[in-house]
Amino acid sequence: MTKGSDRTPLTRDFFDRSVLDVAPDLLGRTLVRHSDEGTIEVRLTEVEAYAGEADPGSHAFRGRTARNSVMFGPPGHTYVYFTYGMWHCLNLVCGPEGHASGVLLRAGEIDVGAGLARVRRISARNDKELAKGPARLATALDVDVDRTLNGSDLFAGPTPALSVLHGTPPPRDQVRSGPRTGVGGDGAHQPWRFWIESDPTVSPYRAHAARSRRAK
């Protein structure tokens, strides 16, 4: 647990704001995962903002579907999706209800429950790699078994499956922003990836790589 970390839970109002306000403000917050196996707490160090219908990089750019309906609110819920046929990713829904937006949780430092995370992340070479990347973070938190956490309410009762505490936000001069990882097309250059400078748990940036098609 980060020394001096504030254990006060965030309120739903925190998420009922513009995604570009919520995303950088999530840095340093404590994400708590409760399960039958135990509790894991992650200090968030890297996130990405996705602005729904106004954002070509968002799953909701072309409107509501069965897959992305959770993104349309209400705020303070989770959006879990499956990608590349292999991995799950965890997002927190924000903004006013009816307007899709969410923050992808890309990386963090596990302060509590590292032993449990190691069981799920046996390929991690050290504890800094346990949640270094969105798929790794989701795996460490046991989000990848199925999508039952999709649509989970962060404020459902006294012990929700996922919740966010105030934590220890970094000084503003330690927050950096840049293009989102792996996003191509018109959304490629939006500086909507936010991270804590020099934190060893932040994942490496990778530009979008177009998939080549085999000649027929």
Question: How many extended strands?
Answer: 9
User: Which stretches are low in confidence, meaning pLDDT under 50 for 5 or more residues running?
Assistant: 212-216
Overall outline: globular
- Which structural category fits the helices and strands? alpha+beta
Description:
With 216 residues, the chain is of the alpha+beta class. Helices cover 12% and strands 28% of the residues. The protein has helices spanning 12-15, 19-25, 114-120, 134-140; strands spanning 6-9, 30-35, 38-50, 78-83, 87-93, 102-112, 162-167, 175-178, 193-196. Strands 1, 2, 3, 4, 5, 6, 7, 8 and 9 form a nine-stranded antiparallel beta sheet that branches. The chain is globular and about 40 Å long. It starts with 5 loop residues before the first strand and ends in a 20-residue tail after the last strand.
Briefly, what is this?
With 216 residues, the protein is of the alpha+beta class.
Topology, element by element:
Elements: E1 6-9, H1 12-15, H2 19-25, E2 30-35, E3 38-50, E4 78-83, E5 87-93, E6 102-112, H3 114-120, H4 134-140, E7 162-167, E8 175-178, E9 193-196
Antiparallel strand pairs: 1-7, 2-3, 2-7, 3-6, 3-9, 4-5, 5-6, 8-9
Core attributes:
globular; disordered C terminus; alpha+beta; 9-stranded antiparallel sheet; 216 residues; 4 helices
